[in-house]
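Let's practice the habit of predicting before peeking. Look at the sequence and jot down your guess about where helices and strands might fall. Then scroll down.
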Amino acid sequence: MTPEQYCRNKTRGSGSSFFYAFLFLDDEQRRAMMALYAFCREVDDIADEVKEQEVALSKLAFWREELSRAFKGRAQHPVGRELAWTAKHFPINEELLVEIIDGMLMDVKRQPMLKHADLSLYAYRVAGVVGLLTIEVFGYKNRKSRDFATSLGEALQLTNILRDVATDAKMGRIYFPQEERIRYRVSDQDFKDGNMSDGMRALLSDYAERAEKAYRQALESLPDEDRESLRPSILMGTIYYNYLQRLRDADYDMWQKPVHILPLRKIWTAWKTWRYETRAVKKNMPLKLEF
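Done guessing? Here is the structure:
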């Protein structure tokens, strides 16, 4: 198996919504995005699946070293080799990839979310940074597109946190800041038990509104001149916005009503968005996330 095949299999096997955006890219962009995604998957799996903290820390240390080797042309791992290829074809910043590892370290070390600033930092490292990397692959002209990338990353991560709140709680992870939990009178045990009190529902609704605001900020900050090249990012945002709408329909009770979107629906949403954006750029039609 070649490094390219390894990353392709890693991406396809994950079932991620991002895969459906990759379908519309040219060959080199798709290869680069699958390398980036495979890297994210590798380090995320360490944070999620390796129970012994010291082992997880050791594995993340390996990836920090592997990034250094990759950018020097001496990568050992298939994903590292694909990142080396990606860095030769696109302006990928090594420091941004290290930021993703730092985000995973926050999970491994079970760093508590005390204030909203803690959550903002985490969201930037695990999602905003990914947005900044992806637009380098897609291409952009206006630096304001970086604001689009980080806002969209925040929106996607907040949507993820809301969608996965029940499964995260089982793992002992609560991403909602302690200061907010205190304000809404929601305890850690409420998350573990799935206690949908008025306070819990208000807390989750508040963060759904924050996600909505981040989606809107992303769309408002996208320069017209980069709308066409960053179409894949819009597509990813549309799929995740579907999740946010379904979370609202379920009244945020992910313990009793887990939200899923079938692959066929994701393909349909991706195609519909791509088709709309193809026409919208030519006719100066408004950006939208609902189809």
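How did you do? The mean pLDDT is 95.
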